[in-house]
Amino acid sequence: MHSGKGLLNALLQFLLLQLCNSSTTNITFDQSIRHGDLLLSHDETFVLGFFSPGTSRKRCVGIWYNFSEDMAVWVANRDDPVNDTLGILTISTDGNLVLLHSNRQGLPLWSSNVSVSPTSTTNTMAQLLDTGNLVLVNQDTNHNSVLWQSFDHPTHVLLPNMKIGMDHGKNLYLTSWNSNNDPGTGNCSFTTEPYGSPQIILYNNHAKWWRLSEPDAVFVSESPKISRRSSSDTFDIILVKNEDEITTPWAVLDHSVFSIIVISESDTSASVKQLAWQGKQQGWVVVWSAPTDVCDKYGTCGPFGVCNTHTAKTG
């Protein structure tokens, strides 16, 4: 008898949870996302929803891996959080993806801010791809042409197949959070410097802080694309240089490995790290990080100096 009551209580709790939290694969003019709702990628690897960063009570719209809710990989309204749980992510009357207050009054807290044909404003739809890319598409076309995508507006994390650098006139770069509790635009950035010989550079307060050294052995193709493979067996770092772009996408070779590149700041310092998900530990572990010491920092001893970690000053 008691076991029957326990089963009934568990069933009621499950049904209540389903009523309080709903999931969908599309955001349309008639299908919105509110607090507690989730937008899922087709394979359910990625999730989009409302979250509170760290100990903050403010709400942001973010994307995270389905198995790691505490690690947002992209944030929409990082500089304009919702002060309560009453935000709504929807398609506006002009066809854009927008974040509004629940009463739909006032200016959007965030918007995809693209021009949509007047004949298509009610036919746009937002989807979360299996790559973690949030896209706004026009359903009027046969192939759902992409009007806007989050990969063109990175925040603090580089997912596999994302790019940093100049791509068709767009400047793509990562920027750190202000703190663990504040995802607002921070003081450090990470990008591919397109001038001269392209380099991957970490900036701290607009000053060069660290740069990726040239690999000892690189494969250079005869085409405008230059491929530089890392020494790791798990991922590739690629430099693409042609008339349309100078970018650095990266790819994870082992698709059973979930890995990201993230930048962060602490006091007056900046760092870039590659993290990998460890299923047994149920957490992210550091694969590599930079700078590793004072001599790894950009320009420590000047253009012609030789740095010694035992004698270099850290101040």
Automatic annotation (TrEMBL):
<keyword id="KW-0723">Serine/threonine-protein kinase</keyword>
<dbReference type="Pfam" id="PF00954">
    <property type="entry name" value="S_locus_glycop"/>
</dbReference>
<feature type="signal peptide">
    <location>
        <begin position="1"/>
        <end position="22"/>
    </location>
</feature>
<dbReference type="InterPro" id="IPR036426">
    <property type="entry name" value="Bulb-type_lectin_dom_sf"/>
</dbReference>
<dbReference type="InterPro" id="IPR001480">
    <property type="entry name" value="Bulb-type_lectin_dom"/>
</dbReference>
<keyword id="KW-0418">Kinase</keyword>
<keyword id="KW-0732">Signal</keyword>
<keyword id="KW-0808">Transferase</keyword>
<protein>
    <submittedName>
        <fullName>Putative non-specific serine/threonine protein kinase</fullName>
        <ecNumber>2.7.11.1</ecNumber>
    </submittedName>
</protein>
<dbReference type="GO" id="GO:0004674">
    <property type="term" value="F:protein serine/threonine kinase activity"/>
</dbReference>
<dbReference type="GO" id="GO:0048544">
    <property type="term" value="P:recognition of pollen"/>
</dbReference>
<feature type="domain" description="Bulb-type lectin">
    <location>
        <begin position="24"/>
        <end position="149"/>
    </location>
</feature>
<dbReference type="Pfam" id="PF01453">
    <property type="entry name" value="B_lectin"/>
</dbReference>
<keyword id="KW-1015">Disulfide bond</keyword>
<keyword id="KW-0325">Glycoprotein</keyword>
<dbReference type="InterPro" id="IPR000858">
    <property type="entry name" value="S_locus_glycoprot_dom"/>
</dbReference>
